[in-house]
Amino acid sequence: MPKISVTIDDKKLDVDVGKTILEVCKENGIEILTMCHLKGLTDVGACRLCLVEIEGVNKLLSACTTKIAANMIIRTKTEKIKRYQRITSELFFAERNHVCSVCVANGKCDLQKLGYKTEMNHIRYPYLFPECNVDTSHPWYVLDHNRCIMCTRCVRACGEVEGAHNWNVMNRGYQVRIISDFDTPWGESVTCTSCGKCVHACPTGAIWPKAIVQGQLEKKPEIIGELVEKRKMNL
Amino acid sequence: MDSSTKRQILISPVTRIEGHAKITLQLDENGNVDGAFFHVNEFRGFEKFCEGRMYTEMPIITPRICGICPISHSIASVKACEMIQGITPTHTGNQLRRLIQLGQALSSHALSFFHLSSPDFLLGYDSDPSKRNILGLADKYPDIALRGIRLRKFGQEISERVTGKKIHIAGIAPGGMAFPLTEHNRKALLAWIHEATETVQIGIGIIKKFHEENEAMVKSFATSPTLYMGTVGPDGEMELYDGKLRFVDVDGTILQDQLDPARYLEFIAERSVSWSYLKYPYYKPYGFDKGFYRVGPLARLNIASKMKTPKAQKEFEIFKAIGNGKPVHGTFYFHYARLIEALGCVEEAERILHDHEITSENIQAHGRWNYAEGIGCTEAPRGTLFHHYKTDDTGKLINVNLLIATGQNNPSMNRSVLEVAKQYVKGNDIQEGMLNRVESTIRCYDPCLSCSTHAVGAMPMVVEVKDADGNIVKRIERN
Ligand code: SF4
Ligand code: SF4
Ligand code: FES
Question: Which residues make Cβ contacts (< 8 Å) with residue B184, sequence separation at least 6?
């Protein structure tokens, strides 16, 4: 594979063409915050956490959806980036109703971890407190819209890996919601195979198994990427 | 009566109880107390905002109602969940829950007695109010204060070692517990037993001495007879974690026995009153006016036929002698009852820690939604607690009813306050010592009004004397 030279955080690297900035950073041990990215799924650039600065480009770009190009000079940890990441995590918390203390994902939640990583000690934006439904209709799983951050990992895991395409996105702006089929209760879905991939893909306490309580949640998001790899091997 | 001559004395907030509260004393034209209302102004809306959630989340949500008895909420809640699922917890799961509930009762009783009440007994009711608290106690009786603090710590350490958290524990799951107890933690807890037993016995010594030296007051302190309700085991033994309900009347005659808590609505009715957010529960067969009943430590000893452990049984017999075998109605005996219970808690904790299966990994049975309705009941430190859930056929809550101990004691609390106020308060000549006795009536019940405030003594008190039109005619502030 042809190589190109780039500079990331003042380090010169020779890397493969055709990769995203995020992939290159991961391969080289450069940490980048992500949320909507999940190995094995198509990246969509939804969460805006993986922002990087590229010299000569006057806006921040998402590392997960930007392909690396020769001679790029990239910075991943500038004050500006940190400021934006903190704003983003605050907005996640302000948008819906996250009460971590009583959440099934407490202590095991990627959004919580993000809050710590971005040193979010308070939220400067007014909470929206939207009224959100808790869909308990599925016999095994719950979808609590209060805790959904619209990363769409469930949508992609279901559509791209399971091939069922039960999940989709409805509305825009603050009214945006994940829907099952054509906005029917999950338990009435004709496409859902109850495989549980969305449960593992979901980074928060939005989708969880009914059988567990706080402290017992064990999500394995990495199985999505592993499944995809295994299938390639079978081919 | 001419309304302009009617005055009200307001004591607000009541110091050294956990939460915000306000007492209004109604004076007649001669300056005699003729009405007493203990206002509970904390309304936290839990019943309403839990609607729409999964029933299995309740053992984690409801402990947030209270920072002192969170475990009782979790346990009542998880039992309601188990009724919905139709499952029984494993032996070890049950024993671990029992253990943390004993720990909670201990730390709660230690707080009530050593931190909040013993300053009155050891320093005197009429001593300087700014020093009549745990800090003042630490000054004069450092050993007792330290022991009290450590007893509370032991209780919390039980929670921590069983569940990983001191206060708002995790791991109480339908079917049992989520995490097993390690051998290391079992041993560490056992190491506390000796000290904890001693401390409770010192407490018992303090209260007995106070009883002797203040016999007249103790015997006459808010003694109106009431009914009592609480949980007993199969042989009528005092029970905190799991059992059946018993009601006794003012003479100790058993009105109901071995009552399945799921039938509580057949025996308890509730009425809302205009001056308080707490509902007024009463014993249904006797009606609102005659159906006052009390719950909590005093009630539990009054209804029980015996204790489960030897040291507590010995004290229990002394306690029973006070009432010649009949219920002890004097509100002051709440303190003694609390300590006898605490003694039983330490003994039972030791017993459980020696259970061969306590560190077993068989901690949880598994179930799923099967029935629409669940009722869970347990003894919180302050009395019997009920959680009642109704769900739709996916497990989503459509109705939640919580019957808490303080609510059940509230009607009697008002009456006790009135009695004491009649005895000690005359006119609007307000002296610190008298007011404190009214407060201390409330403290006997150890009400948990919300846990937003854990006032240790220093809380300022405002006393307002109001006439019937709401005009303040006198105002005293204590800082
Ligand atoms: S999903 Fe995560 S951030 Fe949201 S309430 Fe649950 S633990 Fe907190
Ligand atoms: S349900 Fe979970 S995975 Fe799906 S969009 Fe919401 S947060 Fe992401
Ligand atoms: S991870 Fe790149 S935008 Fe979400």
Answer: none
Q: Do the Cβ atoms of A142 and B171 come within 8 Å?
A: no
Same domain, B418 and B362: no
For residues B97 and B210, state if they share a domain.
yes
Probe residue for ligand 2, chosen from A96, A110, A178, A219 as the CB with the greatest number of ligand atoms within 8 Å = A178
Structural contact between residues A215 and A147, judged by C-beta atoms closer than 8 angstroms = no
The crossing angle, in degrees rounded to 10, of helices B91-110 and B142-163 is: 160
Q: How far apart are CA B271 and CA B255, in angstroms?
A: 22
Number of compact structural domains in chain B: 2
Out of B366, B394, B423, a domain closes at B366
CB B385 within 8 A of CB B76: yes
Interface ipTM: 0.90
Instruction: State the sign of the Cα–Cα–Cα–Cα dihedral A20, A25, A27, A31.
Output: negative
B450 CB-near residues (< 8 Å, 6+ apart): B18, B19, B20, B42, B44, B66
- How far is Cα B327 from Cα B322, in angstroms, rounded to an integer? 9
Q: Determine the distance from the C-alpha atom of residue B429 to the mean position of all C-alpha atoms in its chain, rounded to a whole number.
A: 32
Q: Supply the mean pLDDT for chain B.
A: 85
The residues, any chain, with a CB within 8 Å of residue B259's CB and separated by 6 or more, are B244, B245, B246, B247, B267
The parent domain of residue B452 ranges over 3-42+414-478
B349 and B463 part of one domain: no
Write the DSSP assignment of A62-83 as a string of letters: ETTTPBP-TT-EEESS-HHHHH
Side chain identity at B430, as an amino acid letter? I
* Helix, coil or strand: residue B187: helix
Q: Are B116 and B183 found together in one domain?
A: yes
Among B16-20, B58-62, B147-151, name the one with the lowest average pLDDT.
Answer: B16-20
Judge whether B282 lies within some domain. Answer: no
Burial class (CB in 10 A: 0-12, 13-18, 19+), A112: buried
pLDDT of residue B454: 30
Which residues of chain A lie closer than 8 angstroms to B53, CB-CB? 134
Domains annotated for chain A, with CATH where assigned, are: 3-77 (3.10.20.740), 104-232 (3.30.70.20)
The minimal CB distance from A102 to the residues B57, B173, B396 is found for B57
CATH number of the domain that residue B195 is part of: 1.10.645.10
Answer yes or no: do A213 and B61 touch at CB < 8 A: no
In order of B73, B94, B126, B130, B459, the CA distances from B431 in angstroms are 39, 50, 9, 15, 17
What mean pLDDT is predicted for residues B338-352? Answer: 98
The Cα–Cα gap between B445 and B442 comes to 5
